[in-house]
Design a protein that fits this description.
about 140 residues, mainly alpha, about 60% helix
Length: about 140
């Protein structure tokens, strides 16, 4: 995520709270977060966000070059001087780190994204496997 670790922790705690509420489990039941995630079949929040970010990247890579979403990926501000100190992480930096975790370069991602099904499979496998519990009943 492009947030500080303090905010990441708060978001993760809220995510677990929502899952507990979904299952009807209170903090008094003393159930570990890993057990909650197994019961709901959901990933940790940072993995969900990573998978969605990679999915969006694949979508943007597949659209035509003249579309603004596609052009926005390559935009660079000219004549803008950044402030001193450690630079903030931007979306592109984080996506490049995600691609590095996948073992892929930017150019390879361009080619892989053309096949939608393969790209989504790769994005999901990078983050883990999501299995929905029975109570969702998507069938």
């Amino acid at each position: 995520m492009a947030t500080s670790s303090h905010i990441d922790d708060k978001l993760e705690a809220a995510h677990h709270k929502f899952q507990r509420r979904l299952l009807g489990i209170t903090w008094e039941d003393k159930v570990r977060n890993e057990e909650i995630r197994k019961k709901t079949g959901l990933w940790k929040l940072h993995l969900i966000i990573k998978e969605r970010r990679l999915s969006w990247l694949g979508h943007v890579k597949r659209i035509k070059d003249f579309r603004i979403r596609r052009q926005a990926i390559q935009w660079e501000l000219r004549g803008y001087k950044r402030k001193m100190g450690r630079q903030r992480k931007n979306w592109m930096h984080i996506v490049r780190c995600d691609l590095k975790d996948m073992g892929t370069t930017w150019d390879e991602a361009e080619e892989l994204a053309t096949n939608r099904a393969e790209w989504h499979l790769m994005a999901k496998s990078t983050c883990g496997t999501m299995q929905f519990p029975d109570f969702f009943n998507f069938a």
